[in-house]
Structure formats: C-alpha cells, structure tokens
Amino acid sequence: xxxxGLDFGTSNTTLGFVGGNGPRLAPLEDGADTLPSAIxxxxxxxxxxxxxxxxxxxxxxxxxxxRALKSVLGTALIDETTxxxxxxxxxxxxxxxxxxxxKARGAxxxxxxxxxxxxxxxxxxxxxxxxxxxxxxxxxxxxxxxxGFADLSFQFEPIAASLDYERQVSGEELALxxxxxxxxxxxxxxxxxxxxxxxxxxxxxxxxxxxxxxxxTDFDRQxxxxxxxxxxxxxxxxxxxxxxxxxxxxxxxxxxxxxNRLYDGKTARTIRELEREAAQPDLVGRxxxxxxxxxxxxxxxxxxxAKIRVAEAGATRLDLAVLEAGLSVGIDHGDLVxxxxxxxxxxxxxxxxxxxxxxxxxxxxxxxxxxxxxxxLAHVRAAICACAPQARVIEGDTFGSVGTGLAIEAxxxxx
Length: 415
Fold this sequence. Notes:
Blueprint: E1 2-8, E2 12-19, E3 22-25, E4 35-36, E5 38-42, E6 48-49, H1 50-58, E7 63-67, E8 81-84, E9 87-90, H2 91-110, E10 114-121, H3 130-146, E11 151-156, H4 157-166, E12 172-180, E13 185-193, E14 206-212, H5 216-228, H6 247-253, H7 266-277, H8 281-292, H9 296-313, E15 315-319, E16 328-332, H10 333-358, E17 367-371, H11 378-385, E18 392-395, H12 401-414
Parallel strand pairs: 1-10, 10-11, 12-17, 17-18
Antiparallel strand pairs: 1-2, 2-3, 2-4, 5-6, 5-7, 8-9, 12-13, 13-14, 15-16
C-alpha cells in the first residue's frame, strides 16, 4: 500500500506519489500526467474520461458529457441528479466514477494499491459561506472513502504548490503562492526554506491564506457571453415591447456545469416558442439548434480554445461551424481584457487581503510563485505581479505543481 496526493481540479486532475527518485506525477492518459476533468457516458458501454471523453463527444458519439465537476461541490447541485441515457445519476456518483478511474490509473503507475491520500482543496470552495465550504470538503472526503481511500486528509492547494517550489530554494524566503485554476484562485504566503520540508508542523511557516471562487471557467463564460452568445440572440428583443430574450438560457449555455440543464426537451420547446416571438428569429434559431443537437459543450470547448489562442498569439478567429456553416467571430487581446478585466481585478484584490492578513507590506515578498492555467493570461498575470512588484517571479509547473506538492505532503503524513 502507498500514499498519494490527488489534485482534483475544475479543468484538470493529477495524482502524485513519492517513489525511489522522489515525487512524481502518475501518467493518467496516454503518457500525460494531466487528465482533463471530464467524463462521457455513451449510450452503450463504459464511461470515458479525460481527452477520450471530449474526443468522443466532439466526434459526434451519442451520450452525455460532463466537465468542471468540481464546481458543483458546495452547491445544491451536488444533491441533484442528471439524466444519463435512460437513468439519472447523482453528481456524487458521477464524481466518484471519474475519481475511481484516476485512482486505478495511479495505482497502476505506482505498482501497488493506493489506500491513503492527501486531497487538494481550494482555500474557499464557496465564497462567504463557511457552512457550504465545510460541506464541500466533507462531500469530497465521502467520495474519496467510497472509492477506497481508507485514510485521507486535506491540504490547501497553494500550500501544496509551495512544497513543490521549496525543493528549488537554497536559503530562506517569503513566498507568495498564486494558484489560478479552472474554478478558484488561491493565495498563500509561506516561509520557504529547504530545511523546513521534513518538519511535522509547518503551521508557523504559513502566514496567511486567501482565495476567491474565480478561475479559468469564469473567463470562458464571460468571453462566451460577450462575443458568442449575441450571435445566438443574447440581448436581442422580443416582438412584445419591453421584453428581450431570457438571460438565463445564455448563462447556462456559457457555464460548463450548467449546460446539461438545457438538454431536457422542455427547454428546447421553450426556445422554439421564443424563436417565433423574437425580433431576430434567425439568431434565436441558432440557440435552438445548439440545444436540440446538444452541442453546448462543443461550443464551450471552442471558446476555451479561442481564449488560449488569444493568450498565446494575441488574436484568433473562432470558427462557429458547430452552430452554422460559415459562422465565425474574431477575438483579440483587447476583447479578452475588456470582457474579463473585472475578474482579473477580483483575483488581484485577494492578494491585498492576503498581505493584510499576514501583516506584511508587498515589499516583504521575496518570490511570487505562479501556477495554474490562468496565469498564462497576460492581464491576469500582470494584475498579480503588480501586487508584489519587487518579488522574483517563479514559474511553476502550470498544471502539476499542486499534485507534486500533495505527493510530498502525503509522504510526510503517511510515510
């Protein structure tokens, strides 16, 4: 039996353990140590996870795709069911199915059973709701036990990232760890020193933790609502004066965890009724087809990919053939900043709160350690770096630092 660290992320998941050559991440899919947090239930056969799940869906196979599952923890959705073929599955069961696959693949890589785990968790699963936050942790723990982990504990994700960074330092320093993930943004101020790694109690080295429920999927949603959903009638009027298309339909279609709500038949009929009442029925017709053909996830994947291309190249053309042949929209860095700038500001504001909680000025921070996929967004990165302008900026493993740190913590706690 061995211990592992499990980073169940909104967008990607990793599992790490300590072997003869130190901490390592398990290959979870085709040699890759990151597994997209997605699961696809085909009409027949076993569920698919990760890239295989998304490929099956995009390829047109009939079934149900679910992604961003972590975002339902701490919300009322966790107690609800969703249609999967001819049955309905609870979200707990869906998450358990996904994580059981991760555990099995991790055990295969480790060469032994995994029965102990340190689970990563955001500083806040839910903003401003201590009861909801505690409930989210409890539910995740229950799921972990259900899939066979006999011993489990939790560690804040930015603290885990700091353990990965600590392997690189030679002296002592104060580090601000910024973990900007798919669903949350988390910060910790930690006293880092190589000689501290084996201490049983690191409480005195953790000066402050802060977090906010804003992450990469929120950037996807805002970009979709601003640049794509107007092409489906978002914001357009109905023929009856003073009425417009219901906003909630577009919010659900732009939100990973809510897309499946639209696939209930009744919603499709409602949209067709709205199409007849719409001042621009051709646009609403695109919305109707997206829902009837269950292409919401494909649209969300296209928006996410466009965001990444803008981050890398400054501009892109988003092909919306999934909605209508020849339809597309141009998106550049200015669009991304204009429509998601407030999210970057919300993220950066938590750094100020973290510094205040630690009783420190920005100048006291020696190193700013960045991890998480959304640190690749230039305006997010700039907003974070502006909060500690004198600190050295250290690039962590974008998707692997937390999992590696959790593996280190699992070894320390469970041996």
